[in-house]
Design a protein that fits this description.
The protein is 39% helix and 14% strand. The protein contains twelve helices and 15 strands. It has a seven-stranded mixed beta sheet with strand order 3-9-8-7-6-4-5, with helices on both faces. The protein has a four-stranded antiparallel beta sheet with strand order 12-13-15-14. A two-stranded antiparallel ribbon has the order 1-2. The structure holds pyridoxal-5'-phosphate. Pyridoxal-5'-phosphate (PLP) is lined by residues 64, 126-128, 165, 167, 210, 212, 214, 245, 247-248, 275, 287. Residues 64, 126-128, 165, 167, 210, 212, 214, 245, 247-248, 275, 287 line the site of pyridoxal-5'-phosphate.
Length: 487
């Protein structure tokens, strides 16, 4: 079943484009496998020509995911592209590199690991898989506890902020756990720890805090959550734990905010996920989940297989996967070391500050991201009566910039923002260029709006009309997304 639909293509055939016509002149069927083979040069050229219409990843400011690595690492990736990670007995060195990564990351997150102990964790495809695994561990632990106490264990729930990334909703739906979301409010776009703790009951398998909200990059207050939950646990006799979704922040906080307590230094934090492919600085396809200790990962979730050689414990959703990303993560950890990651993160923070300042100076936007947190700038129009951030984002595309615009979740959905993620490859020069292009875009849109106004076409929209427009736009987007799916 193909879940996604191409938006731009029409017709039944793929016509051989520019250079491929040197090799083939016949059109290829679009949705059926061609009857005949074609020369390898033709296949390459056809696909390469068609892909040219994709956006430029370096100008994709919507994504946290790494778009540039050093050529030496590209070489390692290419060399290991044919290794299936799951064949651990055949590729013991790759397995060893994964274990080293898990241990390095666990130490970075201050896991209480004794000198003769190894960390408990696993490499995943990304934070989504990592979160599914952590969630399953919490669910199973809670079920075991309830069963042993002779209590019902069929209605587990998880408490999060309404700002959680879609993977938490997926976890809840796929694995039948009720998602209890703390609502947001205008000006407060992360989970309020006090409200979260209020929502905890005996069926809560964990509270999930985010270190680096997807919407505005803000770090949630995990320390406060830990303290409030400790008090509630003491009062009720429950032992509700915390998971930290550090998809972005896990590779930022240790370098920029080493004093901030958000990790295993807090006793209730039992597991943490991080995306290797975000600020871990690896191309798409790697994440990590680390548990505080062996006791936090129920043994019955671990499968032992022996048909590939020796006994291999596995706890992942998928079986086969590539090895390249694991090797690339190891490359980054040893190549950059603590010092190198710190330099990269400081540079990102400084470039975010330049961009933030430039946007604020325009006087047209309210910045809703914080100075600390994930290096990104999220901003809303001060006045959306003549055009919206959706139109600004659309206009910016003419300059090649891909900047997402979206509305905040419940109960702040009337606030619409744009967000620019600052990655390692987003230089200060690019920040200055973006400020200039954004300034030009806004001036053009002002002039356009003024012309319409002079022509008598403009009427000042009421707040209600603006809200309705944003809601309609968003509904249409969601409906379109739902029909074309997928992530
Ligand atoms: C806070 C948060 N959690 C989880 C995810 C999902 O991460 P991944 O894309 O690595 O699966 C994201 C992705 O942006 C995120 O921002």
């Amino acid at each position: 079943m193909a879940l996604s639909r191409a938006q731009t293509s029409t017709g039944e055939s793929v016509h051989c484009s520019t250079f491929a016509s040197r090799y083939v002149r016949t059109a290829l069927p679009r949705f059926r496998m061609p009857e005949q083979s074609i020369p390898k040069e033709a296949a390459y050229q056809i696909i390469n020509d068609e892909l040219m219409l994709d956006g430029n990843p370096r100008l994709n400011l919507a994504s946290f995911v790494t778009t540039w690595m050093e050529p030496e690492c590209d070489k390692l990736i290419q060399a290991s592209i044919n290794k299936n990670y799951v064949d651990m007995d055949e590729y013991p060195v790759t397995t060893e590199l994964q274990n080293r990564c898990v241990n390095m990351i666990a130490h970075l997150f201050n896991a209480p690991i004794g000198d003769d102990e190894t960390a408990v964790g696993v490499g995943t495809v990304g934070s989504s898989e990592a979160i599914m695994l952590a969630g399953l561990a919490f669910k199973r632990k809670w079920q075991n506890k309830m069963r042993a106490a002779g209590k019902p264990f069929d209605k587990p729930n998880i408490v999060t902020g309404a700002n959680v990334q879609v993977c938490w909703e997926k976890f809840a739906r796929y694995f039948e756990v009720e998602l209890k979301e703390v609502k947001l409010s205008e000006g407060y776009y992360v989970m309020d720890p006090a409200k979260a703790v209020e929502m905890v009951d005996e069926n809560t398998i964990c509270v999930a805090a985010i270190l680096g909200s997807t919407l505005n990059g803000e770090f949630e207050d995990v320390k406060m959550l830990n303290d409030l939950l400790t008090a509630k646990n003491a009062e009720t006799g429950w032992d509700t734990p915390i998971h930290v979704d550090a998809a972005s922040g896990g590779f930022i906080a240790p370098f920029l905010y080493p004093e901030l307590e958000w990790d295993f230094r807090l006793p209730l934090v039992k597991s943490i996920n991080v995306s290797g492919h975000k600020y871990g600085l690896v191309y798409a396809g790697v994440g990590w989940v680390v548990w505080r200790s062996k006791e936090d990962l129920p043994e019955e979730l671990i499968f032992h297989i022996n048909y590939l050689g020796a006994d291999q414990p596995t706890f992942t959703l998928n079986f086969s996967k590539g090895s390249s990303q694991i090797i690339a993560q190891y490359y980054q950890l040893i190549r950059l070391g603590f010092e190198g990651y710190k330099d990269v993160m400081e540079n990102c923070r400084d470039n975010a500050a330049v961009l933030r300042e430039g946007i604020e100076k325009m006087g047209r936007f309210d910045v809703v991201s914080k100075d600390s947190g994930v290096p990104l700038v999220a901003f809303a129009l001060k006045d959306s009566s003549r055009y919206t951030v959706f139109e600004v984002a659309e206009s910016l595309r003419r300059y090649g910039w891909i900047v997402p615009a979206y509305t905040m979740p419940a109960d702040a959905e009337h606030v619409a923002v744009m967000r620019v993620v600052i990655r390692e490859d987003f230089s200060r020069g690019l920040a200055e260029r973006l400020i200039a292009d954004l300034g030009k875009t806004v001036s053009e849109m002002d002039a356009h709006a003024a012309k319409h106004h002079a022509g008598g076409e403009h009427h000042k929209k009421t707040e209600r009309e603006i809200e309705q427009e944003v809601t309609t736009f968003w509904r249409r987007m969601v409906a379109k997304k739902k029909s074309s799916l997928v992530c």
